[in-house]
Structures are given as C-alpha cells and as structure tokens.
Write a structure and sequence with these properties.
The complex is a heterodimer.
Chain A lengths: L4 E4 L5 E6 L5 E8 L13 H8 L11 H6 L3 E6 L4 E8 L4 H12 L5 H20 L6 H9 L14 H5 L3 H11 L5 E7 L3 H11 L23 E7 L5 E7 L8 H12 L5 H9 L3 E8 L7 E8 L5 H17 L4 H18 L3 H13 L9 H6 L3 H11 L5 E8 L2
Parallel strand pairs in A: 2-6, 7-11
Antiparallel strand pairs in A: 1-2, 3-5, 3-6, 4-5, 8-10, 8-11, 9-10
Helix pairs in contact in A: 9-15, 10-11, 11-15
Chain B lengths: L24 E4 L5 E6 L5 E9 L7 H10 L10 H10 L3 E6 L3 E9 L3 H14 L4 H18 L3 H14 L11 H5 L3 H11 L6 E6 L4 H10 L25 E5 L5 E10 L7 H13 L4 H9 L3 E9 L5 E10 L3 H17 L4 H17 L4 H12 L11 H7 L2 H11 L6 E6 L2
Parallel strand pairs in B: 2-6, 7-11
Antiparallel strand pairs in B: 1-2, 3-5, 3-6, 4-5, 8-10, 8-11, 9-10
Helix pairs in contact in B: 1-7, 3-8, 9-15, 10-11, 11-15
Classes of the chains: A alpha+beta, B alpha+beta.
Chain lengths: ~400, ~425
C-alpha cells in the first residue's frame, strides 16, 4: 500500500506526495507525457535525444549535475515509446536543490549548439553499443516495423536509423521542448521524508510560476487489425539461430491487460513456467526462451524470443513453441497454476515497493494513465482474473493471423 | 510582499555530518552458525541469504563453486528441479543464487508469511542437493551456447583478457573458462564441492526485512543441527600465486566491430588497506560518477562514448583498479590518449576545492542511499564478511572522506597511477 496525497497546481502540474518518514531521503520523479510515439516518422529517436539534452544546462543554471552532486544527490532518466521520466534522490534536508534544478529546466533549456553536437554523438555511440555492436542487438529494430505498419510503435526509442539523430537541428529541439515540456504535461512525485505541506510549498515556489502553454499532439495512427501472418528472415554473424515472435495485444489500461499479463506469466515466468519446462528442459529445443507483454499505453505486443539449441531445426523449434501457445488457447489453466501466478504478482508488487524510486514511478505512471491510486488496486485486479478469461485472451492473441515472426539465422 | 524568485543561486543545502547505519542483531544457532539480522522496513517480506565463502587451492575453484551453487536448486534427494521450482513459485517466492569471487550464496526472497512453509524445502536444497546428471547435461549445453554469444561481445572479451592478464592462469581470479571447461564438469566434482563448501562449518546467515523472533527459532530448528557437515570443512590452504602479465598493451582485433572495448588498469590493494577510503575519493573524481573527469571529457565534451568509468574492485586476495569504456572504433586511440591525459592532470595539478567538495558530498549521499532499505544494509554488511569485518569498519568513514585534501589526492595519484605501467586491453578495431 502506497499512501499519497495529490493536487493540481494552477498551471496544470500534477503533484503527488508519498510521505515515508523511515527514510533519510527524498526521491523526486518528473514524468513528461511524451515518448517516441509522439515523434515525426522522419525525425525518430527525438524524445530520447531530447532526454540527453535535458542535462546540458537550463536557462539559469549552466550545469545540471554539479549542484545536485554538491548537495549529495544523484539522478537519471529514461525514455520509452510512451513517456520520458526523470528522477533524482537527495538527502531529505537538501531536496530544495531538486526543486530548483527541475523547475528551471521545465522553464527553459540553455539550447547550446555544443551540447546538441556532443549529445548527438553520445546517442550515436549508444545506438552502436546497444543495438549494432551486440549479437542479436538489432532484433527489435527489425521486429517493430514488422508488427506495426502505421502506428508509431513501429520504431524503437533509439530511432529508426542513426541519420535521424545526426540530422537533428537546434530549431527542432526548441520546437519539441516548448510543445511537450510544459507543466500541464507533467506529473511531479515526491516520495520519502517530506510532508505534503512542505512539498506543496516548494512546488508553489518553484514550479507554479512556470506558465502553461498549449500542446499540439497529433492523434496516433491506429494500427489496423492484422489479418495475415507476417514473417521476415535475416542472416547474421551470430553463433546460434534465434526466433522472435510478436503478437498484437491490448493496452496497459484495458481491463483485459491483467488476464494477458497472467497468461504470459504462466508461460514464461520463472523456472516452473511452461515454456522453460517444456521447451528448454524436456524437449531441449531452446537453450533460452522468454515471453512477455509490453504493457504499452496503446495496443501493445506479446513478444517471444528464443535461442535454439545446437542442431535443432527452425521448423522443429517453432512447432514446439506453437504447440505450447495452442495449449494456452485451448485448455483452461489449472487452479494451482493460476494461484501460483497470482501469488507471484502479489510478491512482485510488494518487493518493488521497497524502493522509494519505484513507489514514485508507480504513482506517476498511474496518474498519467488516469489514476495514481492504480498502484494500490493492481493486486486485486490480478486476483480477480479467471482461467476462462486467460484462455479467451490467449485464443485472441496466439492466433496465427496475428503473428509476426522474425527468423534470425546464424550464418555459421 | 512578493520577492522575485532567484533562480540563479542554489538553495541552501546541508553537509552530511552523520548517518545511522542500522546495526544488526546477532544470533547463534545451536551449531554455531551466526545469524545476522536487519529487522526493519515497511514491507512484510524477508530476504534470507546463506553465504558460503570460497576457498582457493587451484585455478578453477571459483568456476566449480559457482556451478555447484547454480545447480543446487536443480534437484534434491526427494524433489526434482521442477518440483522445487513449482513449490517456490507457488508461494510467490524467489530462489536465487549469487556467485562472487570470494563467496557463493543461496538466497530466498519471500513474503514473511510464507517463510515457515518454505523453510523445509529451502533446507533440503542446502543440505540434500543431488546434482542429477541430466540437469548437469542441460546446464552444460546451455552454458556453452551462452558463452558463444558472450564471445561475440567486445565488452566480455576485454574483461576476460584483462582479469586473466592481471591475475594469471594459476589464481582463480584470473581464470577464464572455455567450452572445454564446461564440457569437462563432472557430477562427482560438483558433489565433492557441495560437501566441502556448503556446510554449517562454513556458513553465515543474513536476514533482512520484517519478521518476528519465531523466525530465528525456525532457522535453528531447520539449520541448527550438526548433521550437515557432510565431508567436513575443507582444510585451509594457501591461495595459488598471482602471476600478473607484465604491463603491456594487448589488442585483439574483432572483425566488423564498430566499437572497441577498452580496459586499462592495474592490480591494487583491497578494502583492508589504510588508503582504501582515500583512494575511493580519487577514483570517484577520475571516473566514479556522472560528473567525473573522464565522463566530462570523453563523453560530455568529445562525445566518443555512451559511458566511461573507473572503479576499484576489492577482493580477498587483492583488488584491481580499472577504467573501462566502449567507444567508436575510429576514436579508440584518441580515447586512450585522453585517459592518459586525465591521469597526468591528477598527478600534476591540485583538484580544485569546489570539485573536491562535490565529490565528497556525492560519495556521502550515495553512501546514505545505499543504507536505506533492509536489503541494501544486508548487501553492505555482506561486502565486509569475507574480510572478517563488521560495521565498525565505517566508524571513521565520514571523517576520513571529509578529511581528504587536494594534496592527498595529488600524492595518491602519484603513488598509484602510472598510465605507462598499466595493463591496456583493447578489443575491437582501431
């Protein structure tokens, strides 16, 4: 249970405070409701590049990190297809430094040419390190456009291609900032040793003066229902062949999400899961196999990735995998399996709430999806799922016509 | 009255002048096993960890102990791997293992309410693992494939070359396993290692979370007897010699690599050395945080890399200092030059007071953060265990860190950091 108080500042900024006096720290989390899905198809990777630029100095403060470190704090940020999230932790007595830094960069950035040039290079190196210079690193870059034909989830957060990042101009950056980095488009969460009144006082002092501007947001193209199976075969210099599959599924906020998530847990969470026991242990078709649901704001994917065992043919491996997915679609899961995955979810939620930062992020995500209190309702929603609901969702998702398969073949 | 908000000046902040490390409770089971408890937090869950220190007599000791640990959950005298996994998953618990250089451990994470029902199964794993040969076979197959994938990664290759060259082929710290080593694992070897290492004479129990005293009684009931010594404690033997390669530049070309992995460094003392805390300030200044010299220069000014850092690894038989990064292949040599340059600057120019203050505050803030949740405090305690240290180790921490002067850093840099005497490993293209 995460207790919190919530209010909205006059400029539209949502403020949520979770007080935990047992901690000597305060975690500050600012979520901006902008992600890679908001990008122009000819300027992909922008939301993430922008996250880097947010550390290149703001209008009144030449450097973001130094004053934070001077006050004993540390910070980071991440971008995904839906959101951009910034967070910092400070000793409780020094939290005002966080308000000062974050409000100034919400107000305006320094927009330096040098910072843009350097961060373009840094992101290009990140692109290489994570996606191009790793075995199987480009699989997601291939799978997304296979699964999505019109929706912006067809590109990864890092971008479609390096050239989009290389060509970003300062003017593009400014437009992006003034459109999306706006109090009305953000959620501010404080967790830890701070009272609601103190957090509210500081938020009024530092954030309330920032003017709200209106946001122009294009509607996201709706992905048409897939009507026939798609596949792509590539050959790469990797030691073992792999198979990837992506199936369309629901949104994170749909009521059916909980059944979908439990279905994926039964198939692939932990050493007692079906795919591991059947495909890795018993049939020895794969050395490693994972299946999970992306849980995106728009309709997401259930993704499988598996590395084949030595000597196993791709058709054999795929047949084994499909059989397990068919069983999910045709037969009810046992009571024991259902209790098991529900117990697991309960403990995952409990464990994740040890961390102050996770508590903040959970509240922020809940808020941006409609209700911060969702974090406290999740366990019950999972518990309400029935075996029949899981079967129905599996039947919809694991339909051959709904599949996108990437055969990632070893050249050796 | 409204005063204009001053956005150019940092709000007042306080130095960290004290911190409370949550002191553990110490209990002893009837057979002498020490139970170190951290009973606090908000969530009704526990982390229960059994730590078994490694002992070294030959090069593959860490490798064998690690595999014996990983496979401990793959079957016991009465339960199959699947039955064990079903049981722990059913109660939403996690069964994990950790294989470090100096110890191996088995860890149970669970909601506290399920601990009584899970402990008998946990006991069976720790005292009656059977190492079924078919499970060993599956493990080998899969581990060989994972190794092959790793061998395609420049980061893995550079790390393997670096530690192998630093610690030599006789000491376990320098051992890099091959496909043959995996193929040659014998059931008997694992059973022998299980018997000699994973017994009550070589065990410390760590417990963190919210629980009541019944838990200590339950632990005593299940683990407090003398009947799980198996073959007895292995006799203490001197560790194998460390035979470092001479300082040299080792380059492994990896065709088609678009980034090179760089690792440069040298062998160093471990955390028992009087210079350890002070050196950590020098290390942080150079490459231990986002605002470090290396990050500021090589990432934030030049844009050569997504990340670069330095670190001081402490192990029982000695540590090492390392700077590592993955950089664009075309700027490999430039990066090495800049690393050398940053070290030269530390040896010749005093670190400005303001920067030093920032480093100290950052270190102390991170320390505070690392002592927040019960599991964090457990980890911190565990890192001292193999040195026979406890939290009194940190009695002078705050004072020592705050007392470091720019002159101290200059002297430390000259004493320990000579780039030309470093081992330099590059894997990729240059």
């Amino acid at each position: 249970m995460v207790n919190f108080k919530r209010t909205i500042l006059p400029n539209g900024l949502k403020l949520i405070v979770h007080t935990d006096t047992t901690s000597p720290l305060v975690n500050m989390n600012i979520l901006y409701n902008v992600g890679a899905r908001d990008e122009d198809p000819s300027q992909t990777g922008f939301a993430h590049l922008f996250e880097h630029l947010m550390f290149g100095g703001s209008i009144h403060i030449p450097e973001y990190d130094s004053p934070l470190q001077l006050a004993g704090g540390d910070n980071n940020a991440f971008t995904n297809n839906d959101i951009t999230n910034y967070y910092l932790t400070l000793p409780a007595a020094n939290i005002e430094t966080g308000f000062w830094l974050e409000s100034d960069r919400m107000l305006s950035l320094a927009f330096s040419e040098k910072s843009l040039e350097v961060q373009r290079n840094v992101v290009v190196e990140e692109f290489k390190q994570r996606y191009l210079n790793q075995p199987y690193g480009d699989a997601w870059l291939l799978l997304r456009p296979l699964a999505y034909k019109v929706h912006p989830y067809q590109w990864a957060t890092i971008g479609k291609e390096i050239s989009h990042i290389e060509q970003a101009t300062l003017n593009d950056v400014k437009n992006f900032f003034f459109n999306y980095y706006n109090p009305d488009n953000a959620v501010l969460v404080l967790s830890g040793n701070i009272s609601f009144d103190e957090a509210h006082r500081l938020a009024m002092k530092w954030f309330a003066p920032i003017e709200r501007t209106s946001i122009v947001r294009k509607p996201y193209a709706v992905e048409p229902i897939q009507t026939e199976a798609r596949s792509l075969t590539v050959e790469r210099d990797v030691p073992i062949s792999a198979i990837y599959k992506a199936f369309h599924c629901c949104k994170r906020t749909d009521q059916t999400f909980y059944a979908v998530d439990l279905a994926t847990d039964i198939l692939s969470r932990g050493k007692s899961s079906r795919l591991y026991n059947s495909l890795v242990k018993k049939q020895k078709l794969f050395t490693d196999i994972n299946l999970y649901c992306t849980g995106d704001f728009d309709n997401g994917l259930v993704v499988v990735d598996g590395k084949l065992s030595k000597g196993v043919k791709m058709e054999e491996a795929e047949r084994g995998l499909n059989e397990e997915l068919q069983i999910m679609s045709n037969l009810l899961v046992s009571d024991e399996e259902l209790v098991k995955v529900k117990n697991k979810v309960e403990s995952i939620i409990e464990f994740s709430e040890i961390d102050l930062g996770n508590r903040s992020l959970g509240l922020a995500l809940g808020e941006v999806m409609g209700d911060a209190n969702q974090v406290n309702l999740e366990t019950e929603r999972y518990k309400a799922v029935t075996a029949e609901q899981i079967r129905q969702e599996a039947l919809k998702i694991f339909d051959h016509k709904n599949s996108n398969t990437l055969y990632y073949l070893s050249k050796n | 009255m409204i005063t204009a908000l001053d956005r150019t000046t940092q709000p007042d902040f306080k130095q960290i002048t004290s911190f409370d490390i949550h002191q553990p409770t110490i209990d002893k089971l009837d057979n002498g096993i020490k139970v170190v408890g951290f009973n606090f937090g908000l969530q009704n869950l526990v982390k229960l960890e059994f730590v078994f220190p490694n002992r070294f007599s030959k090069a593959d000791d860490i490798f064998i102990s690690s595999i014996a640990t990983k496979l401990m959950t793959e079957g016991t005298s009465s339960q199959s791997a699947k039955q064990i996994a079903d049981k722990f998953d059913y109660y939403g618990a996690y069964l994990e293992s950790e294989e470090a250089s100096d110890y191996c451990s088995i860890i149970l994470f669970t909601l506290t309410k399920h601990l009584p029902v899970l402990l008998p199964y946990f006991k069976e794993i720790i005292t009656e693992a059977s190492y079924p040969s078919d499970e060993i076979g599956i493990y080998k197959q899969n581990a060989i494939q994972r190794l092959k994938v790793n061998q395609e990664k420049v980061s893995y290759l550079s790390k393997a070359t670096f530690t192998h060259s630093l610690f030599g082929s006789e000491h376990p710290y320098g051992f890099v396993y091959t496909e043959d080593d995996l193929n040659n694992i014998a059931q008997q070897t694992l059973i022998e290692r299980y018997n000699s290492q994973f017994n009550f004479l070589n065990c410390t129990i760590l417990l963190a979370g919210l629980y009541n005293n019944d838990v200590i009684h339950l632990l005593n009931k299940h683990f407090g007897s003398n009947d799980w010594a198996k073959s007895g404690k292995a006799a203490a033997a001197p560790s194998p010699d460390i035979k470092s390669a001479l300082p040299s530049a080792l380059y492994t070309e990896k065709k088609g690599a678009i980034q090179s992995a760089i690792r440069v460094g040298k062998r160093m003392f471990n955390r028992t050395d009087p210079d350890y805390f002070k050196f950590s300030v020098l290390n942080t200044t150079l490459g231990g945080y986002f605002g470090s010299r290396l990050m500021s220069n090589i990432r934030e000014d030049k844009g050569y890399t997504y990340g670069i850092g330095s670190g001081l690894a402490s192990m029982k038989d000695g540590g090492y200092f390392v700077i590592s990064s993955e950089v664009g292949a075309n700027v490999t040599n430039e990066t090495l030059k800049e690393i050398k340059h940053e070290i030269e600057v530390l040896k010749t120019t005093l670190v400005p007071n303001e920067e030093l203050q920032m480093v100290k505050n950052y270190i102390l803030g991170s320390f505070l953060k690392s002592l927040d949740a019960p599991g964090d405090v457990l980890e911190r305690y565990k890192s001292l265990l193999v040195y026979d240290l406890d939290f009194s180790y940190y009695n002078n921490y705050l004072k020592t860190i705050n007392g470091v002067s720019p002159e101290d850093l200059l002297a430390l840099a000259n004493k320990y950091l000579d780039f030309d005497q470093f081992l330099q490993v590059v894997v990729g293209q240059k």
